[in-house]
Amino acid sequence: xxxxxxxxxxxxxxxxxxxxxxxxxxxxxxxxxxxxxxxxxxxxxxxxxxxxxxxxxxxxxxxxxxxxxxxxxxxxxxxxxxxxxxxxxxxxxxxxxxxxxxxxxxxxxxxxxxxxxxxxxxxxxxxx
Length: 128
What we know:
Layout: H1 2-11, H2 16-21, H3 27-34, H4 42-52, H5 56-61, H6 74-81, H7 86-97, H8 100-127
């Protein structure tokens, strides 16, 4: 279970400190839990599943998908409205769970990429 906890944290793109903050525990405690030096309590298990929509069955047994979404959540509504496949749902979910600093890096990358594409497009048109 401790290994799956770490796997879920990494899938969410969170540091131990960020992950623990929403659970009310320190990054040191998260480190000890992930290394198996401390056992996960039921309280921590339920807090993780509630805060991060982690599938409790997956966390405990490794079976099923890592995350669950309750019917009626915004992501489920968007998935239905835009007919998103599972990969698209996971992409959107992963982005939304990123820390703000990581979202900013992605935004800056997208802007730089768009500028490079525009330069390339202008260059190709001048060669015609």
